[in-house]
Amino acid sequence: MLQRILHTFYFVLTLGFSAVVFLTMTWYMLSSRQGALSQIVSTIAPRAHEATIARARDTIEAVLLVPVTAAARNAAATLLIFRIFAVPYAHLAALAVVIFTLFPLTYAYFACLPWSVALAVSGHWLTGMLLVLLMAISFEFKSERERQREQQVRRDISPQFAEVSLIDPNLLGGCYPSNAFK
Questions:
Q1: Taking the complete model, does pTM exceed 0.90, yes or no?
Q2: Average pLDDT, integer, range 120-147
Q3: What residue ranges do the domains of the chain occupy?
Q4: Separation between Cα atoms, residue 111 and residue 115, nearest integer Å
């Protein structure tokens, strides 16, 4: 029993430490103008232009920041809307929204459909319809900074990256399904 507790503690400690290191290094690489990425590229390829380094930074931002920002925004909106309507299991819905946002195979607001159907079947059909409507509308609103970042990603992302990724450079944000599998 004690051995299981120690293994669990070790796993949680290792996972937490790894997450902190990963997020710290990612933040450091993306926030600095002349940071680790520039040094790595200049060491590997001394003749690399600043435009190449900026393009690599933009690709990393497209892979990490844009989807995670959209997922966090959509999860917060889900929690708020579910709390407003006093719908149970809001955290489960927020988790589904995060998954649908990070892997946009369908619309992210479809995560609320089981709750909407359950509300409609239990006689609260207006609440179920409002839940779907508010989720769909709230996922459409983005800040101006998010829109600028998405436009920059659309310009800077390479066609090869767009073909193999789940991120659709034309429809970023997690509200729209990806066309990566067409």
A1: no
A2: 86
A3: 51-164
A4: 8
